Amino acid sequence: MYRLPPLRRIKAFRSTPSGIERNAMYDFTFEDLVGDEKVFFAEYFDKKPLLRKNAMPGDVRDILSVRKLDELLHMESIRPPYIKVNHNGSGVPEKGYTRSVVVQGVNITDTVVPEKIYELFRAGATVTWCSLNQIVPELRDFTRVISDKMAVRTDVVGFMTPTKKRGYLPHHDPVDLFIVQLEGTKRWKLWDLPAQREGDNASYTDEELGEPAIEVLLEPGDVLYLPYNTPHAAAAEDQVSLHLSIMMRPRMWKDLLRETFEQAASGPEFNQYPHIGALRDAGTEALFRQKIAALAARMDALDSGAELDRLAELGRTMPGSSHGTTFQTIAETDRITPSVLLRRTAAVVEFGANDGGRTQMTVNGHKIAVPTPVAETLAGLEADVPAGDIFPGVDPERATKAAQGLTRLGVLEVAPH
Length: 417
Ligand SMILES: [Fe+2]
Fold this sequence. Notes:
12 helices; globular; JmjC domain-containing protein; metal-binding; iron; NO66-like; binds fe (ii) ion; eight-stranded antiparallel β-sheet; three-stranded antiparallel β-sheet
């Protein structure tokens, strides 16, 4: 299974194995959001709001800015549900700000009309940018840092509210939120968690909630953490406000147990197809009882630490923060020359016995037979070696071709430089 690298801090410039550099514009850690991690998980996580003034380093407009949203709006590819407009507490129908545009012969019926969005914004509407981590690569980096720690699905939503306007009526959400103020200011009212937390959406009237328990003004760089179901309302002050809500869908015990059950019930002994209707055998009930006992025994025998690690890994690889460099890897494999340094990948390679001068190797589910000296060289490869010299005594051009083949199979990779 692919494991995300330990992400403490995303470098402003990262070097890929090919040396291709990408400018990830913003550099932050999980601690920037929560402060001391131990204190956060012991005292705030799932319990109460946490406000951190001036928590984010650098210029938070590098994460996302009003200017960047102008650019995105004009790209003609942002469509509902990635953009939504909310006015006076209710959603504006999409027809109010979209039109049909033909792209590659296909009629895209809900292409956003920037002028209409601007008109609504001037009239006081809030523009909501949903799942921005599916659109803006820098925000994908952002969700990775959080998903990696929280082991849950993470999505980033941007809220842009005009001066003096309240975006939504007081409500609570089914998700934990990290709110990061990026531009302007926003005054937040928070109420105590309801006695019963259902993990649902709900709206409130001002009368139902009474006086807020906490009132805070968020300024650029401030972070506010809200556990799921915290009732909240927010209003912009004397400037256009832009904030991100990083939404984390809690995985409750019932969700985790369902995953564990799925794993435990996947054994072959649970694959038979019993008839359980009126004409079922007399022994079916007893058999059912046996299956329940067998399942319970399997669950009981689980290594709970290893299972929690597996569940955490599943959470990290949920949609919303995946990333990959396969195109780059394929392109750089094609560019391998005799002088390019190669190394063994982390992939597990099983070597078979020497059979008439050839050895079978199994890697990533592929079986190939290679000359035994090649297998021996690969088995002992520890340092980075130029592709042309990787197989001693073999012509450099031929060695390079063989190394390219082994790179495609995932046995070798270009060494970082
Ligand atoms: Fe909300």
